[in-house]
Amino acid sequence: MSTADFSVQSSCERIAYVDSHTAGEPTRLILSGAPDLGGGSVAKQRDRLREHDWLRRCVILEPRGHEAIVGAVLCEAEDPTAACGVIFINNTGILGMCGHGTIGVAVTLHAIGRIGLGQHRFETPVGPVDVALLSPHRVAIENVPSFRHRKKVAVEVEGLGTITGDIAWGGNWFFLSEDAPCPIRPEHIPQLLDAAARVRRELPRAGITGAADGEIDHIEFFEHSDTPGVHIRNFVFCPGGAFDRSPCGTGTSAKLACLAADGKLAPGETWVQESVLGGRFEGRYQPVGEGKVIPTITGEAFVTAEGFFIRQPGDPFREGMGR
Ligand code: PYC
Question: Is the pLDDT of residue 216 over 80?
C-alpha cells in the first residue's frame, strides 16, 4: 500500500502538522487549521491565541500529544523582512521563546520547501531571533538579549535543604543551580523531576521572581561533564512538569549570560552543554551592553512525522484531556 492509498473518509476538521526533534526534544509545527490571529506584533497575536486555547489543548495534550511536546504556531511577522512569526506552546500554556523549537521550525520549514539554506529572521513574542540554516539539519540561532538578574539566591526547599542558584533570562526565566540532589544521569530522572518541581513551587512562596515579577518557570540543574569536549551536563525542568530532552536553547542562553557576568567565558568562545540524555548544543555570546549578551546556540534537528489531526464531532476529547 502506498501512502496515497488511504485516508480517513470524513469531512471533519483537520489540522496539518510536521513533527521534528532537536537533540531528542520534540517540536510540532502546526501548518494549517490555526485560528486567524489578525496580524500586528507577535506578542499581540500570542494574546489572541490565548483566547483560542482549544488549538494548544488539541495538538499538545493527550490523546493527540504528550507532555514533552512543544508546539509552534506560525503567524504573520510584523517586520516584512522576517520569514515568519512563531508562537511556542506547551502542555501548560505559551512559552516566551524556545531554542530547540526554533531549530526544529527552521529544519522543518526547509524540509517542506518554505525556506532555503542561509540566513532568516523569525519573530517571537519576546523579540526577533536570527536563524542561520547551515545545512538541512544544522541551525545556529541568535537568541534574544539574555542576562543574569540575580546571583546566588538561596531558597529553603522541604526535603532538599538550602538550594542556591542564579536567576537569568534567556527568552524564559530560569533558576540555575548546581545543587541537584543526585548525579544528572538518566537513571535519576524521577528524582531530578521531583527535586526541580519542589524548587519551582518554593520560589514564588519565597517571593523569588525574575525582573518585573516575571515567573521563574524553568529550573536548570547542572554539573561538570567528563564527556570530552563538553563543559557541563544539565537537567531542565519545563513549566508543565516535563524535562527537556535537549540541553534547552533558552536554558543554554541563560547559562551563557551567567558565565559572561562571572567573566568565566570570553565573547565568541565556544561553550558546549549536554542534556541528561546526552544531546548537545554549542553556545557562544556577544556582549550588547547593560550586562546583556546575545547568545548564539547551534544544534541539529530531524523531521520525524507529518500528518493531520482530526477533530470529529462528538469526540469528548476534541480539545484534548486535562489542562
Ligand atoms: O529549547 O528553549 C528551549 C526549550 C524551552 C522549553 C523546552 N525547550
Answer: yes
| CB 234 near ligand 1, within 6 Å | no
Catalytic residue numbers, as ranges: 98, 248
Please tell me whether residues 150 and 293 are part of one structural domain.
yes
CA angle, 250 then 252 then 258, to 5°: 105
User: pTM for the complete prediction?
Assistant: 0.97
In a domain, 55, yes or no: yes
> What is the structure's pLDDT at 4?
62
Confidence of residue 3 (pLDDT cuts 50, 70, 90): low
DSSP assignment of 36-81 = P--SS-HHHHHHHHHHTTHHHHHHHSTTT--TT-EEEEEE--SSTT
Same domain, 121 and 220: no
Q: What is the pLDDT of residue 17?
A: 98
Q: Does some domain include residue 316?
A: no
Give the span between the Cα atoms of 32 and 111, in whole angstroms: 16
Residue 291, helix vs strand vs coil: coil
Where residue 56 falls among pLDDT bands split at 50, 70, 90? very high
287 and 188 in a common domain: yes
Q: Please state the domain count of the chain.
A: 2
Distance 8 CA to ligand 1 centre (A): 34
For residue 275, give its domain range: 146-298
Cell of 90: 506547551
Same domain, 97 and 239: no
Nearest-atom number in ligand 1 for the CA of 103 is: 1
Q: Which atom of ligand 1 is nearest to the CA of 171?
A: 2
Top mutation candidate among 238, 245, 274, 275 for ligand 1, by most atoms within 8 Å of CB: 238
Q: In this model, does residue 10 exceed pLDDT 80? A: no
Does residue 323 lie within any of the structural domains? no
The pLDDT of residue 199: 98
**What is the arithmetic mean of pLDDT over 61-71?**
97
